[in-house]
């Protein structure tokens, strides 16, 4: 269970999960996650547009489930090409909890209040279009709980991801 008092366990969980996946254990390497498989309705086209940029970042990516057949093929190809940095997880509740307990950043291309609440509960920072649950990080005030793409375009979303990885 996570709270502000147990947030320090995040690094331990991340290192343990990286080891479980057969990856190099690296606490400072951003661990990104996609909470559920991708579909057109979940922003798949936007994701496709920025995946090259995402993979150019020094990061690891976990995807829970594969989504539609089209995006399933895309994630399977990414896992094949970047197996040391991309992993598809089965769509199981236990793996979802492990994923959020380990991940630094959750990627959202469409509104999903339930999953955003889950990621926030585990101390995972969302990258998302603007939503009521989220306050964009303000570096001057050092406040906010997310990095928000506003207006929501694929490249504003990518800029929000870059801001998050730099912070």
Number of strands: 6
Could you give a short account of the major beta sheet?
Answer: 6 strands, parallel
Calculate the mean pLDDT score and round it. Answer: 91
Q: What percentage of residues falls in helices of 4 or more residues?
A: 40-55%
Helix and strand composition category: alpha/beta
Query: Major sheet: order of its strands?
Result: 3-2-1-4-5-6
Model regions low in confidence, pLDDT < 50 over at least 5 residues:
none
**Total number of helical segments?**
6
> How large a portion of the residues is in β-strands, by DSSP E?
5-15%
**Could you say which overall geometry the principal axes of the C-alpha atoms support?**
globular
Separation, N- and C-terminal Cα atoms: 25 Å
Succession of helices and strands: HEHEHEHEHEEH
Rg (CA only): 15 Å
Notable characteristics:
single chain, 167 residues, alpha/beta, 6-stranded parallel β-sheet, 6 helices
Task: Detail the topology: elements first, then pairings.
Blueprint lengths: L8 H12 L10 E4 L9 H13 L3 E5 L4 H13 L4 E4 L3 H10 L2 E3 L5 H9 L3 E5 L17 E3 L4 H13 L1
Parallel strand pairs: 1-2, 1-4, 2-3, 4-5, 5-6
Helix pairs in contact: 1-4, 2-6
Task: Give the gist of this structure.
The chain has about 170 residues and is of the alpha/beta class. The protein has 6 helices and 6 strands, in the order H-E-H-E-H-E-H-E-H-E-E-H.
Word description of this protein:
- With 167 residues, this protein is an alpha/beta fold.
- It has helices spanning 9-20, 44-56, 69-81, 93-102, 113-121, 154-166, and strands spanning 31-34, 60-64, 86-89, 105-107, 125-129, 147-149.
- The protein contains six helices and six strands.
- The protein has a six-stranded parallel sheet with strand order 3-2-1-4-5-6, sandwiched between helices.
- Helix 5 (113-121) links the parallel strand 4 (105-107) and strand 5.
């Amino acid at each position: 269970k996570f709270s502000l008092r147990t947030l320090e366990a995040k690094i331990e969980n991340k290192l343990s999960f990286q080891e479980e996946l057969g990856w190099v254990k690296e606490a400072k390497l951003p661990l990104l996650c996609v909470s559920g498989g991708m579909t057109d309705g979940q922003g798949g086209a936007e994701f496709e547009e920025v995946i090259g940029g995402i993979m150019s970042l020094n990061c690891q990516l976990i995807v829970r489930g594969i989504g539609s057949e089209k995006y399933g093929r895309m994630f399977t190809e990414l896992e094949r090409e970047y197996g040391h940095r991309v992993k598809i997880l089965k769509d199981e509740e236990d793996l979802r909890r492990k994923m959020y307990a380990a991940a630094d950043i959750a990627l959202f291309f469409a509104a999903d209040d339930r999953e955003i609440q889950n990621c926030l509960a585990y101390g995972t920072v969302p990258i998302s279009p603007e939503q009521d649950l989220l306050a964009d990080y303000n570096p001057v005030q050092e406040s906010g709980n997310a990095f928000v793409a506003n207006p929501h375009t694929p490249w504003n979303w990518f800029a929000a991801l870059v801001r998050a990885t730099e912070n």
